[in-house]
């Protein structure tokens, strides 16, 4: 064991000397490994970050949650021109389904509307996400109230001018003051604050509920108009626990088909999207992105491998005389073999670590310019980068190491002289 540690130590110093004595040649040889590891880990980090962001926005919702809308969350065989003709789900359809579909824990009508600015006296909170929902949404996402309450069904149906503030919005407008009963200005109207949400993470209506507010959906319908396709209406449904989802979706679809008067031969002019299916689609998409990214990055690693092999062949040639002396003094073939293998691995790992450092720097810079979107360089990805670079060094150094170990000591000394 000690001899291998000594070989590793000597190989490390040989690798460092190669860097010091032939800086340009070594750095050019390592450039391929650095670029390859940078490409691979950058792809993995970007895909992991994207996946975390998407799934984080749905984390508060159960996977059995169903979203009924004219859009499909996944691939579909229905051509785009036909999908563009699909009608939006209406409030009347939501009311009908809420009455007629059994085994439903909660069903909410929601609109997706652009961010707005909210004012209170001389203070303004900008770029605030607006969640226009019916009262049942509180039960679907299990929102947590820090102070006050969420609006009830009567306020939702009548479209009362009440508002629930996200924690950051509350702090921007009121600081530490009590906001209950105060009026804020939104859409050119006054809304009475009835609740403040607990500080929390990502949600369905944007990056974070902390920067959102919630309004009764019917007052937003009056503001935007009941038939405004730009609000992308949807019905969010949470079935009861233990319900057969396939049967539930089939019954739900048939009820909506009946309400819309669709004939037997007509295709559904709506989509029933289940979050579990959406999560599976995201997993499949990210897997494909990883696969193609790794293939492209593999070409860079291939070039890097050739660079490491090249520098090791040069190293063997430069140290031929030293190899002959070592063998004449009793060094075994495996000692010479491991010496050059370790050196190749160490050089390759150095290139990989440089690549990881560059990914870390780029991720920090990118996170600063993308707001709430955070790029993640996980320990697992760092381990993958280090392991891959070590494997590349091992593969690239095996042929030069074998050729060095098989040198005849007399011929090696004579050639070196």
UniProtKB/TrEMBL annotation:
Question: What residues does the ABC3 transporter permease C-terminal domain cover?
Answer: 295-409
| Record-annotated MacB-like periplasmic core domain positions | 26-252
Major location category of this protein: membrane
Transmembrane regions: 27-47, 291-314, 335-362, 382-404
Output this protein's name: FtsX-like permease family protein
Originating organism: Salinimicrobium oceani
The membrane topology noted for this protein in its Swiss-Prot or TrEMBL record is:
Multi-pass membrane protein
Q: Where can this protein be found? A: Cell membrane
Keywords in alphabetical order: Cell membrane, Membrane, Transmembrane, Transmembrane helix
- Tagged with keyword Transmembrane helix: yes
């Amino acid at each position: 064991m000690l001899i291998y540690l000594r070989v590793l130590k000597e190989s490390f110093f040989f690798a460092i000397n190669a860097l010091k004595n032939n800086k340009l040649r070594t750095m050019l040889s390592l450039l391929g490994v650095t670029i390859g590891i940078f490409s691979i880990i950058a792809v993995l980090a970007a895909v992991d970050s994207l996946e975390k962001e998407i799934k984080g926005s749905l984390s508060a919702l159960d996977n059995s949650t169903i979203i009924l809308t004219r859009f499909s969350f996944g691939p579909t065989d229905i051509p785009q021109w036909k999908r563009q003709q699909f009608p939006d789900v209406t409030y009347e359809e939501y009311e009908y389904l809420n009455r007629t579909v059994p085994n439903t824990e909660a069903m909410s009508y929601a609109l997706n509307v652009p961010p707005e600015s909210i004012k209170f006296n001389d203070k303004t909170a900008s770029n605030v996400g607006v969640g226009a929902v019916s009262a049942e949404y509180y039960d679907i996402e299990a929102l947590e109230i820090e102070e006050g309450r969420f609006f009830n069904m009567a306020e939702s149906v009548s479209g009362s001018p009440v508002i629930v503030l996200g924690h950051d919005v509350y702090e921007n407008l009121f600081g530490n003051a009590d906001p209950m009963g105060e009026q804020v200005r939104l859409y050119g109207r006054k809304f009475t604050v009835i609740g403040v949400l607990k500080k929390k993470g990502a949600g369905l209506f944007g990056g974070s509920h902390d920067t959102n507010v919630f309004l009764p959906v019917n007052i937003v319908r009056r503001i935007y108009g009941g038939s405004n396709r730009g609000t992308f209406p949807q019905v969010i449904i949470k079935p009861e626990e233990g319900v057969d989802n396939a049967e539930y979706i089939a019954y739900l679809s048939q009820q909506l088909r009946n309400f819309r008067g669709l004939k037997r031969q007509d295709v559904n002019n709506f989509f029933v999207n289940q979050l579990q299916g959406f999560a599976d689609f995201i997993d499949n998409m990210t897997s494909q992105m990883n696969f193609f990214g790794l293939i492209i990055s593999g070409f860079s690693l291939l070039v890097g491998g050739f660079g490491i092999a090249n520098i090791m062949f040069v190293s063997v040639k430069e140290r031929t005389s030293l190899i002959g002396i070592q063998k004449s003094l009793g060094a075994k073939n495996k000692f010479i073999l491991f010496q050059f293998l370790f050196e190749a691995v160490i050089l390759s790992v150095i290139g990989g670590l440089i690549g990881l450092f560059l990914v870390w720097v780029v991720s920090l810079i990118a996170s600063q310019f993308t707001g709430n979107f955070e790029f993640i360089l996980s320990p697992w990805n760092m381990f993958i980068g280090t392991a891959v670079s070590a494997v590349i060094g091992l593969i690239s150094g095996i042929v030069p190491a074998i050729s060095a170990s098989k040198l005849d000591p007399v011929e090696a000394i004579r050639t070196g002289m």
